Predict the structure.
Amino acid sequence: MKKLLFNLSLLLLLISQGYAQQQPRDITFQSNSAFNASAFSSDFQFGLLNVQDVEMSAYKTDPSAHALVLNEYGKAFFISNTANPPIQFEYHTRIKIFDTTGIKYGSVEIPLYSRDKGSFERVREVRGRTFFKDASGKIISADLTESQIKTIKIDDHHSVVRFTLPGLKKGCVIEYKYIFEGPYIMNFKTWEFQADIPKILSTYNVIIPKFFGYDVSIKGPLKLSTSKFEETKKCYYYNGLTTDCMNAVYGMENIPAFVAGPGMISAKDHRAAIYFQLTDMIAVPNFADRNYGVAISIGKDWKQFDKYLMMHDQLGEQLKAKSPFKSVMPAIVAGKTTDIDKAKAIYQYIQKEFKWNGYYSVL
């Protein structure tokens, strides 16, 4: 496990509603490879299409692949002096679809969590485009429209943003990007380098002010091809206070598709990915006079982590709730004399009265 120590004051910020923004339609062609050294530290240009990507009929390294991630870039950072949620995550990807099975990668779901009306995640500035050949062989494009982007509420705490790129067909190239914002510093964005389709390039840029302590762990069998760190001076400011940041860039190239092995229970635990766990922070209770507080330890041992879980609204708070079965249990087991008959009656009651909301979750 590699540890990067960052410190940041926890800010109480207001949150406003997000929106989806439609972008102009155009096609720009690139004559050479889309992947260069600058891609490891900055996003690649939206709509800058490589003709070879459209012409590609299969991925030589993995001819069985149904689709291929041509490029993928993410950036996570804290926003200065803003009424938006403090953590912003930008995601951008371009994918080649080889066959009809690969068309499913043109449908996207982004899960969102809301603790309450004043603390929730949102997605904005969704942008998408599909490149494909028409009947004459000319490369044309179709843009994702705002009306094609839907936010579906699952329950009081969970929703999902869904969209499907237009014009999906065998041989097309899709591209989409969005901005994700959230207030939960405990849930700093995990980056999964590996997926069930291969990737040519995947890059994650993380910029964190120096008031937070995170344990950063890289899991999976693959090695980073890029790992850069530098200190960025005066990168973050709030209410007159300015601090430096640690700027980290992680990258992998030519990433094979993940294939679950026999007996593998949780594939997610074996994929190449980078995780961030908040361990400590330095409180700044008074920005006006820069009266720095003491260091606060968060989740460095199981006792502290247990305390955090018991405060969570979907675990600890649920355990405090009164049982909904106490009043109806006598009627459920009425007339049942054996334990097995009582168990069957309870099972049948749950089958009849409970309906799955389609969402997998522990927290």
